[in-house]
């Protein structure tokens, strides 16, 4: 049985950036490898996302996870596409835990997230944009809350 804090205990996450994006069709992101992990929460619209060899049709309130080093490709499926994008590293491998970012137990696609998970994205964005001295701790604390999506 998995402890609710197991992932937080194993991982050492390094938050990089969060931003809100808005694109109109035709929007596409040509295939390329990414040097960090990324979580995207879709706030409006529909898109097709490809993570390595797996393709997903994503819509409002879905989350897509791109593991570090994966090849990604994206394009909007009509209308406006809006999403929040969080970028981070898992430095656990560097710390000798043997737990590689390629094997995070998080689903690549999370359908129709609940209000609590939606709120996490917006709290990270708000903390990141604030001038508070402890904002980095707030951001990291919220980032670790994604362990509820462990497979």
Automatic annotation (TrEMBL):
Transmembrane segments: none annotated. InterPro entries: AraC-bd, HTH-like, RmlC-like_jellyroll. The keyword Glycoprotein does not apply. Keywords: DNA-binding. Residues 27-86 form the AraC-type arabinose-binding/dimerisation domain. Gene3D superfamilies: Jelly Rolls. The keyword DNA-binding applies. This is AraC-type arabinose-binding/dimerisation domain-containing protein. It comes from Tigheibacillus halophilus.
């Amino acid at each position: 049985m998995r402890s609710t804090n197991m992932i937080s205990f194993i991982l050492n996450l390094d938050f990089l950036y969060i931003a809100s994006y808005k694109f109109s069709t035709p929007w596409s992101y040509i295939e390329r490898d990414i040097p960090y992990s990324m979580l995207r929460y879709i706030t409006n619209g529909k898109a097709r996302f490809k993570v390595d060899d797996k393709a997903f049709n994503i819509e409002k309130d879905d989350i897509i996870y791109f593991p570090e080093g994966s090849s990604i490709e994206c394009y909007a499926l009509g209308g406006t596409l809006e999403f929040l994008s969080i970028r981070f590293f898992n430095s656990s491998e560097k710390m000798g835990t043997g737990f590689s970012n390629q094997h995070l137990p998080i689903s690549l696609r999370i359908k129709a997230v609940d209000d609590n998970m939606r709120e996490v994205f917006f709290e990270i964005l708000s903390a990141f944009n604030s001038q508070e001295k402890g904002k980095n701790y707030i951001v990291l604390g919220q980032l670790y809350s994604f362990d509820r999506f462990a497979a």
